Amino acid sequence: MNDDELRQALTVREAYMAQLDMLTQQVQLLQISVEEAARARDTLKNIKDAKEGDEILIPIGAASFIPAKVSSTGTAIIGVGNRISVEKSVDDAVAYMKASVDEISAALKKAVDTLNEVETAARNLTAAINQESQRRQ
After folding, report:
1. What is the residue-wise DSSP string for 62-99?
2. CB neighbours of 34 closer than 8 A, spacing ≥ 6?
3. What is the pLDDT of residues 99-128, one digit of tens each?
4. How many domains does the chain contain in total?
5. Of the candidates 7, 2, 10, the residue with the CA atom closest to the CA atom of residue 126
6. Considering the domain boundaries, does residue 33 fall inside one?
7. Cα distances (angstroms) measured from residue 71 to each of 49, 51, 76, 97
8. What pTM did the predictor assign?
9. In a domain, 136, yes or no
């Protein structure tokens, strides 16, 4: 490896590191989104299975819940994106949230796969750079 190739390899490694940081953040955000959508799906299922007057726990975030009495199990208002919410039957809301969990989980898998590929490429390039540095000493 000549000096120009070594400089290019170092530049590429820096790009890999920046990409790894971005992908790590993306994976973390997707994990949070999956957990949030799954929690909403599970809460909707609990409401669906409840009877009017039953007391259930409603998650409010940060592992916190409030007790609430069910007054209706027929409909739910759910966010569908871009700060828009719609009223759906609880069955449709559960199906919508299940589809959301599946979609986000698929995106998470792709992000993790890409992260692993970039990690492997960065590790291999770092090994080659280290080997060249040792050879030059």
Report:
1. TTEEEEEE-S-SSEEEEEEETTEEEEEEHHHHHHHHHH
2. 101, 104, 105, 108
3. 999 999 999 999 999 999 999 999 999 999
4. 1
5. 10
6. yes
7. 13, 8, 12, 21
8. 0.83
9. no
